[in-house]
Target: Ornithine carbamoyltransferase
Amino acid sequence: MNHLLSLQELNRSDLTWIVQQALAVKRESWRYYNACERKGLLMLFQKTSTRTNLSFQSAINQLGGYAVPMDWDSSNFSISPIRYESRYASRNSDLIMARLKNHADLAELAAYSQVPVINGCCDKYHPCQALADLMTIYETAGSFSGVTLTYVGIHNNVANSLIAGCMTLGVRLLLVTPIVNESSWDECLMRQAYGSGLVERLDTLAEAIPRSDFVYTDTWIDMEFFRDPLYREEKQRRIDMMMPFQVNREQLKGRTPYLMHDMPIHPGYEIEEALIESEQSVIYRQAENRMHVQKALILHLLETG
Model:
């Protein structure tokens, strides 16, 4: 059974196919209106979502299938062992997309599922976001060859899946990540990354920007904690520590790399508001591409699953 849990499951050929297929679907979406006729996608949410929810529902519906959204806490997943619920749910679905808090729960869901499981985001990985990021880079640059991407912010789930994807495709990745989310750290992945010669850690954004074709930033505060009063002290600590790493015009010093952000955006924190709508921003294209690349992923998993 083929699942997508981290992005490390895909080899170069499959990952390239998904990116190129996503571009084909984006250009001529009408050709795929019946590609998944009557195929059902269970969408299991333990975390809130805008882009994952909307893009997956739009994707499967535009492919001729249907989506069944389910709230984890309102279902028996919250009170019964995952292995039993997974065995049942997968008998009623052709695919499962799960957006869960803990990667261990996602892995258990996949282990007992009879259909492909897609990680819609967990504490350790966010492969669907990385797929859209890589598609956007390819669409914008026309190639992965010779491309350098800088990721600046918290080392988190998005960073992990980006690292995996960049290593697979041969994209040079510069990491400017002064804070690490402990739950996201993947020691094995990072050993491979630094040993690959493609991934490099830098201390300042000023070192990275002159070398960058794309600069990618992300929220400093996980969305579930952004308004949590119990997280106020940690939130302020992160803001104080990360402000020198804000993507802004002063940091760019007249250079014009393409700017990326996976959203939701907190203007005035990780990125200067004026840059969000600037000519070098590909942020909205990046967000739109979630739907297109997820169509390609669905086609890939249903063909090989």
In short: The chain has two domains: 12-126+291-304, 128-286. The first strand starts at residue 40 and ends at 45. DSSP finds twelve helices and nine strands in the chain.
